[in-house]
Structures are given as structure tokens and as C-alpha cells.
């Protein structure tokens, strides 16, 4: 019923930049919030950044000042601009959406993940 498709991951050198996108489609009435999470090998999934439909943002301390989350509400799309990347940013990045369906259900959905590798 709802699909989240992430794109923009890849290999980048330390200090470089990447821009991730997440497009939501399907049975969507509205989206309360969208967010980005990441999971490195051997570690638990952690919050990177979130943004509400009203534009309120939240960031992990480790990415403040380097990453910027934004959204295009008419397109149901969220973005994550990642600058000054470090090797410790290497992880699979997942998009999350808090969605209200046309049937009045509030549900949580996850994308398939996109690999970000920061290495020389």
C-alpha cells in the first residue's frame, strides 16, 4: 500500500558530499513526519535526522552542522544533504515515514536502505 524508495547513496571520499532522497508513494492521506536512520555493521539502527510536515527538524549530535534534512511535501519526498562526510558515517541509510492512510490508520513504513561508504 505504501512504498518508500531511497536513492543517492554511493562511495565518497572523506570530506565529500552526498544527497539522499526518499520518495513515498501509495495509499497516503498525509505524512506526519519523515526521517533518516542508519545502521553500521555490528551496531543498532540509530536516528540521523527527522522532519515534520511543518518543517520542524531534529538531528543526531554526531551530524549537527554537517547534515541537512529537508522535504517537498507535494511530492511526498524527503532529502538528506550530507556534507563533510567522515568514515564513521559509513552505514546503510534507511528512510522512515509516519503516514496517515486514507482509511484513518497511522502507520510506520521503512525504505529498503541505501549504502553510504566514506573511504579514501
Q: Quick check: average pLDDT?
A: 96
Q: Residue ranges: pLDDT <50 for 5 or more in a row?
A: none
Strand content: over 45%
**Strand runs, count:** 11
What is the succession of H and E elements?
EEEEEEEEEEE
Count the DSSP helices: 0
Distance between the termini: 40 Å
Outline type: elongated
Helix residue percentage: under 10%
Biggest β-sheet, characterized? Answer: 7 strands, mixed
Radius of gyration: 14 Å
Class by SSE composition? mainly beta
Q: What would your notes on this structure say?
A:
By secondary structure, the protein is mostly beta strands. 0% of the residues lie in helices and 58% in strands. Strands 2, 4, 5, 6, 9, 10 and 11 form a 7-stranded mixed sheet that branches. The protein has a 4-stranded antiparallel sheet with strand order 1-3-8-7, with no helix packed on it. Strand 9 and strand 10 form a beta hairpin. The radius of gyration is 14 Å and the shape is elongated. It starts with a strand and ends with a strand.
Amino acid at each position: 500500500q505504501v512504498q518508500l524508495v531511497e536513492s543517492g547513496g554511493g562511495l565518497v571520499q572523506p570530506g565529500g558530499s552526498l544527497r539522499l532522497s526518499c520518495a513515498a508513494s501509495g495509499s497516503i492521506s498525509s505524512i506526519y513526519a519523515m526521517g533518516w536512520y542508519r545502521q553500521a555493521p555490528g551496531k543498532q539502527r540509530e536516528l540521523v535526522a527527522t522532519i515534520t510536515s511543518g518543517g520542524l527538524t531534529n538531528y543526531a549530535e554526531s551530524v549537527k552542522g554537517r547534515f541537512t534534512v529537508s522535504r517537498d511535501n507535494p511530492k511526498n519526498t524527503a532529502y538528506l544533504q550530507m556534507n563533510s562526510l567522515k568514515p564513521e558515517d559509513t552505514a546503510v541509510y534507511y528512510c522512515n515515514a509516519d503516514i496517515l492512510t486514507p482509511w484513518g490508520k497511522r502507520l510506520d513504513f521503512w525504505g529498503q536502505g541505501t549504502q553510504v561508504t566514506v573511504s579514501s
